[in-house]
Amino acid sequence: MSATSKCPECDGDVAVGADAVKGEIVSCPDCGAELEVTAIGPVALALAPEAEEDWGE
Ligand SMILES: [Zn+2]
After folding, report:
1. What spacing in Å lies between the alpha carbon of 1 and ligand 1's midpoint?
2. Distance 57 CA to ligand 1 centre (A)
3. Domains of the chain (ranges plus CATH)?
4. Which of 6, 14, 46, 52 is buried most, with the most CB atoms less than 10 Å from its CB?
5. CA angle (51, 24, 53) in 5-degree steps
6. pTM beyond 0.90, yes or no
7. For residue 38, which of 16, 54, 56, 55 has the smallest C-alpha distance?
8. Tens of pLDDT along the chain (57 residues)?
């Protein structure tokens, strides 16, 4: 079983695995955007930070 959430970029449906964890990165099948799982049950998605972004570590 998997949950579905909306892509914040294109509003398309994005399937998120039932075993997804907060912080997991999934790709939108419609626009290819990288999305971060920001909440579980219900699943919420946000655009993932750009790869070149400074993580401050
Ligand atoms: Zn999308």
Report:
1. 21
2. 29
3. 2-47 (2.20.28.160)
4. 14
5. 15
6. no
7. 16
8. 678 999 999 999 999 988 899 999 999 999 999 999 999 988 999 999 776 656 676
